[in-house]
């Protein structure tokens, strides 16, 4: 059986050693799940997208992230592209208008309106295409999207993960636009974690005010659908606190 080395931070390695966690079994199970999810997204995005619901195979994706992909397909067809590109995914994410990624971007000092303006400057030579498949870079970005969700320990794939996938994909127009606006992957990951922590805190606070039980076990699959713009002040406070600590 092939052997794969797993490198851990010193403090985690010591904790694992002290507790006696079965690293091999845990890693094997985690890798099995990761391979299954990445294989599923690869099959879903590399086929023909002309069916009634081209997102039907994206079962781990939230409704908002599936809506974004549908918008991306519509965008590509409107401009007569042969393929759906990363620029279409980013445009769909911004124009959807109410997802977590649009709360993350301002927290890293990127205005979604500026993203739209920069996307408008990307050349569009395609004409007369049917946009019935994902481009290589778009398919790669969606695979990275799933990988980012897995690495964050999430059992769903939301628009915040799509933002990370687009930044991580090195060759697509969307990543070039985002990185050109100063978005870097490590900072974006940190902003996503802060946004989700702020969301849970906000929901717990609202539940307590309503006299209901705290939502400590809030279902993360509903994050995209339930985000309220009231989260933005929480993100701003987190940013100020982090600046003071840093």
**Second rung of CATH, namely the architecture:** Orthogonal Bundle
Number of helices: 12
Q: Into which percentage range does the β-strand content fall?
A: under 5%
| CATH superfamily placement | Clp, N-terminal domain
Quaternary status = single chain
Low-confidence stretches: 213-231
Structural class: mainly alpha
Task: Give the fraction of residues assigned to helices.
Answer: 55-70%
Taken together, the total number of domains comes to 1
CATH class: Mainly Alpha
- Number of strand elements: 0
| Global outline | globular
Order of helices and strands: HHHHHHHHHHHH
Major pleated sheet: none
CA radius of gyration: 19 Å
* Distance, first to last CA: 45 Å
CATH topological fold name = Double Clp-N motif
Overall pLDDT confidence: 76
What does this structure look like?
The termini are far apart. Helix content is 63%, strand content 0%. It has a single domain, classed as Orthogonal Bundle (Double Clp-N motif), CATH 1.10.1780.10. The chain is globular, with a radius of gyration of 19 Å.
Short key terms for the protein model shown above:
0% strand, Double Clp-N motif, 12 helices
């Amino acid at each position: 059986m092939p052997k794969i080395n797993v490198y851990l931070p010193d403090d985690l390695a010591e904790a694992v050693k002290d507790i006696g966690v079965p690293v091999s079994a845990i890693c094997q199970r985690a890798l099995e799940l990761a391979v299954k999810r990445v294989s599923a997204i690869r099959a879903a995005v590399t086929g023909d997208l002309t069916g009634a619901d081209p997102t039907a195979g994206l079962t781990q994706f939230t409704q908002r992230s599936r809506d974004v992909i549908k918008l991306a397909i519509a965008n590509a067809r409107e401009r007569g592209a042969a393929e759906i590109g990363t620029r279409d995914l980013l445009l769909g994410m911004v124009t959807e208008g109410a997802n977590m990624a649009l709360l993350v971007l301002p927290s890293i000092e990127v205005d979604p309106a500026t993203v739209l303006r920069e996307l408008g400057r990307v050349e569009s030579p395609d004409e007369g295409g049917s946009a019935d498949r994902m481009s290589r870079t778009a398919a790669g970005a969606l695979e990275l999207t799933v990988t980012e969700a897995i690495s964050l320990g999430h059992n769903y794939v939301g628009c915040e993960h799509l933002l990370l996938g687009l930044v991580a994909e090195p060759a697509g127009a969307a990543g070039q636009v985002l990185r050109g606006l100063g978005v870097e992957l490590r900072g974006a990951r940190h902003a996503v974690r802060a946004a989700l922590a702020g969301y849970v805190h906000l929901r717990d606070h609202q539940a307590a005010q309503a006299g209901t039980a705290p939502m400590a076990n809030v279902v993360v699959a509903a994050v995209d659908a339930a985000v309220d713009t009231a989260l933005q002040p929480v993100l701003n406070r987190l940013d100020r606190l982090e600046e003071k600590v840093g």
